[in-house]
Known about the structure:
The protein is mainly alpha-helical.
Amino acid sequence: MYNEENVTIGYRDTAEITANTRVFMSRVFSWMFLALTITAVTSFIWAASPSLMGYLVKPEGGLSVLGWIVMLAPLGFVLLMSFGYQKLSAPVMAILFVVYSVLMGMSFSFIFLAYSLGTIGITFAITAGMFGVMAVAGYVTKTDLTRFGSLLMMGVIGIVIAMIVNFFLKSDTMGYIISIIGVLVFTGLTAYDVQKLKRIGSGAVSGAEAFRKMAIMGALTLYLDFINLFLFLLRLMGGRK
């Protein structure tokens, strides 16, 4: 499974470490932006085409078989990439990440049916701004954010449990509170994950197979931070059709 212990560390001078870190982080953000672009374009194409949406939704209502696959498959891809990290090659992981981005775009097409285009655009811009600020903060800060990592992950677990409970309660107030907490947690996770990836990049060997695989997994981590931050902000913004 992918973790920080997979990093190859050796003695190198400061200039080499700095250069490798910059290259690594550049790869991470390049993959992340590519994935977000694929997701955004795919979601817009599917939402704009009634015939394509017809593959995801039954005529009488409810999700079709393909619709359920699109909704559930992304989790399987994340687990496959995480637990298969050691065995999968970098090209295979890249393909999985791209396919995952397409599936996420297909599932996100439902957002266009629930929210106005203006709300989605404004929320995306706010998300990008918040993510950018916290990413820079995580990269440049000298404060060790490691101790906050476990607290933030506990927050994620708490959010998941609360969302499951609210699925049955259907409380708007509880949903609003969950969204606020979700924004705070994933805003913090953005800074924490960027700092963690910076540390990984400082110990990675540029050009190695593990270097490319870690960059993809790092991109997946930040992609999930961005997506979750966007979704929680979207729920707070409202603007449903």
